[in-house]
Amino acid sequence: MSSNLRLPYLFKRYGHHNVVRLIDPDLLDMTQPFFSASVAERTGHVGMIGFDEWLSVQPEVSDGFANFSAIFHVSRCGSTLLASNIRASGQAMVLSEPPFFRILRHRMWGSISADVAMRACLAMLNAWRGWAQERGAPLVVKFGSQMHLHHRNLLDRMPAARFIFLHREPSAVLESLSRKPPPYLQAGRLKELISLPIITPTESDPVLIAATHRYCAALDSFASLSRENMISVGYEQLSARYAEILAHFGLDPESAPPWCGQRDAKASGGEPKPYVPVSAERLALFSESHNEILAYASWRYQIFLTG
Q: Which pLDDT tens digit goes with each residue over 174-208?
């Protein structure tokens, strides 16, 4: 059922006009694994307001973003599965990779400062946090995998929030990124990474080189980070530490269903589908074909683990 509530969800620029697009959150399909898929055609655009007009009336956040938790992560590390399990607990409103934070990269296509972009995305996030609180639940957001580029600024501005950094050994991550590159590694965005230095002369694949640089940058971002409101968890630890993660996020592990790692968390709606992992043979072939760059990434991962 639709309501009169309209929440901001997307920053856009039309010609010389910066605008904020609005949707009715009660029409979102919350069974979808990602926010973008939950925005059905009928809810994709139900309103629009000028950016400056909207930002000028946004309230200051005075509680340090209490009742908010977020997942930082490297790519392809089980973060969607973690978000799916938290959603299944029924204790939090979970948004997976909402587009609120894209403004930190495009800054309204260069028309606003980095500080204004940060203020805008936090104001948008705060509106959704209020929506969750009205429903008696905290808000949990799974960030996109590139949010490590902004992590310190976000952490400084949200001292009362809770965070996790989810990581994974590099062979499975890089094999997946090489086989199915995400938008930041596809042709339109890859040119942004064209100046990255060559890691090893035996590796010429620009996608794999860029993926490795971003993977290592994410590890570096959190390697020396020690904060009370941040914990670090490896992919292989998800099941064993799931109760700890829930408690860290202020949720009740005793009231949540047990961890489920057997469903395909990225499958859209409908009946749950089983998770089919990449075969050992495929991983072995990938590792053999790219052994030198994987050796480098593994070395960097060990440095991260040993602190």
A: 999 999 999 888 866 666 665 667 788 888 888 89
Residue 73 backbone phi and psi in degrees, to 5: -170, 160
- Show the CA angle centred on residue 10, arms to residues 114 and 61, nearest 5°: 60
Q: What is this structure's pTM? A: 0.94
For residues 304 and 159, give the distance between their C-alpha atoms in angstroms, rounded to a whole number.
24
The residue extents of the domains of the chain are 63-92+138-258+278-306
The predicted pLDDT at position 271 comes to 62
CA distances for 49 relative to 2, 12, 23, 193, angstroms: 20, 10, 11, 34
3-state SS of the chain?
CCCCCCEEEEEEEECCEEEEEEECHHHCCCCCCCHHHHCCCCCCCCEEEEHHHHHHCCCCCCCCCCCEEEEEECCCCCHHHHHHHHHHCCCCEEEECCHHHHHHHHHHHHCCCHHHHHHHHHHHHHHHHHHHHHCCCCEEEECCCCHHHHHHHHHHHCCCCEEEEEECCHHHHHHHHHHCCCHHHCHHHHHHHCCCCCCCCCCCCHHHHHHHHHHHHHHHHHHCCCCCCEEEEEHHHHHHHHHHHHHHCCCCHHHCCCCCCCECCCCCCCCCCECCCCCHHHHHHHHHHCHHHHHHHHHHHHHHHHC
